[in-house]
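Good morning C.,

I know you're traveling, so I'll keep this short. The sequence:
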Amino acid sequence: MNRWLVLWALSFLCLGDVLAARVLTPDSQTSSSLTAKKRKKVAVVLSGGGAKGAAHVGVLKVIERAGIPIDIIAGTSMGSIVGGLYACGYDAQTLDSIIRTQNWSYLLSDREDLSHQSLRDRAKQNTYIISKTIGLGSHKASEGGFIVGKNLADLFQKLTAPYNDSIDFNKLPIPFACVATNIVDNTEYVFHSGVLGQAMRASMAIPGAFSPVYMGDMVLVDGGLQNNFPVDIAKQMGADIVIGVSVQEELRKANQLKTTTSVLLQIVDANCKNKFEENLSMTDIPVLVDVKGYSSASFNPAAIDSLIHRGEAAAMKHWDDLVELSYQLGGLKGKHLSSRQPQNNISLEERYQIKQVRFENMTKMDELFLHNRFKLNAGDSIDANRANIITTSIRMDLFYKSATYAFAPAENGNDKDVIVTFTAGTKKNNEVNLGLRFDNEEMVALQANADFPLHFKIPTHLDLTLRLGKRIMARADFAIQPRSYLRPTLSYVFRHNDISLYKNGVQSYSLTYNQHTVELQLINFNVRNFNINVGGQWDYYHYNNLLVNYRPELHIDMLNNEHFFSYHAQVDYNSENHWFFPTKGAKLRLKFGYYTDNFVKLNGSIGMREFSGLWRMSFPVGTRLSFQPMVYGRFIYGNSVPIILNNVVGGPFFSHYVAQQLPFAGLGYIEGADNKFLALQLQGQLNITKNNIVQLRLVAAQDAPKERELFKHSTLLGTTFSYCYTTSFGPICGSVGYSNVSKKFYYFVNFGFEF
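The tokens, ready to paste straight into the viewer:
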């Protein structure tokens, strides 16, 4: 659905259409001896086009190859992005690398980059498919578009870091202008100054897809609605010669207008011809790019590669014209002017020294939180990457709807001294998340979450979660986040479970129960890949129904309602590069639990002790193949071990049906296991393409009532083969497996994130 939404929205991007190629006639008065000061000024004009605008990069490569100096750049929408970056110092080859290496599915969304945030935040992002926020105040920037455009704005800010203060665009290495549309009065607005990243963001704010950019009394959207091929703007800036690039297909014929979508797009394209004919008539070298077969949403790597090459091919059709222009501008016959080099040495890793830090639209407590957490003191160093991490924290930890930064040169300082300004948007009053999954065991499950910031001096959150399906769960978390990385949390959880437990492939019993949990995490230390959790909890189990498949060894006749007081300590570490399909990194979890019924003992003797853990490493072999060995297990001790806390294994996930569940390849349902359980799993993973993944899991395990008997019992073996396709709504996976435990084949199909 996300793909079709972006495709629908990007169709509003108006594209220029080149009707004829015209050959530049040399001016008889021009000679190669003209000096740079007297030569004619050359402008490059780049039209809008969404993904098809990648072709602009190919055209710029050919212009550089011809040795033509560019004096002015004007663009609209995607043309403003390519043109703006070129104007501030990137050459065509660098732009080629930038456009190819972007994660466009991430950029065309509002998902946060949580690689430097807590494991809790990362787990939440990989649970829900939809996240929406609502802000306070009169300017709700998320309204008016399905996508706020936060990630694109962050990228523009990062790429234009040396120029993200308000500046005159004529003072860029190449003078630049871009066009937006003010929908308040339906007029054209031309950016000649301001914040470069914001101007680019406004020029491509496609109505209905991206929220508008608010500037004073103006509400700015995509400039293509007024002037998609702004040759007239380049002329006003002093251009004598215009090289114009358009990436629009011809209007559809009558026999192609037979669907609602085609008719809608035809109306949009026809209306977007505004000023096109006039601007085309002023273009000296119009470059028509053949974009047939591609749409405004074709941001996949293969399409981008093809579009860049098509841009080069279209420009090469005008090679003679470009060479002749190079001669006119001062090139010697047989020798062209040297290809353009970056006029500003831009480096995304370039570090600056903080002279002063300023905060705008933030409370004093929030400023103090950021100062203490990130050590923002005069003399410290900062770069664009670190600034982005801080703005993410402003949005995630302090619950602001938006956050930006700006580097400004410091007066009386050296070239590396900057004044850093962090500006926050409006405060969120909630964040709503929705998750949906399907599998052939539980069928459909829905999970909704709402996070409410409470307006106290110390950042405080109330987090509510509801899960509907075969298993029902309701949860409330009250968390306090002081200036450190600690997050003390008080939680209440209600669960309604209906589970079936198997033994050697035969169903032993079915149990329906309600569980009430109150948990206090006194220490909840979060810092990037680490989480340390220490606390206690009270659990009450109310058993509703127990159906036993009578077997003498089970010793189960009935269960009485019971409660436990327990103490827990857990350490988590996760540096894996993907939540579900890692190819590198490590994952570690160690947990200790002590269970009682009176705070000290369980059934009159020492309490039950639990030691559990997992350790997984990912090793890439080449670019597509990787291996993930994992060791995991759970050891429980005590004279009295409640049935509800016994070891259970099966399925592909940890803690899916019950908290103590351990995965086991080849088992589709959960099986009872002895108190001491230890397993070794080897997984091979082949990334056929970015989205198509196959996995083979092999697992061997030992279980026994006591450690000394662990390797005296027969080995439990299992294997699973899976194919998965990753989507923005979670992975779609199909698996088949076999285990010597059940001695049966099983299959498992699921769609969506696990919860």
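Safe travels,
E.
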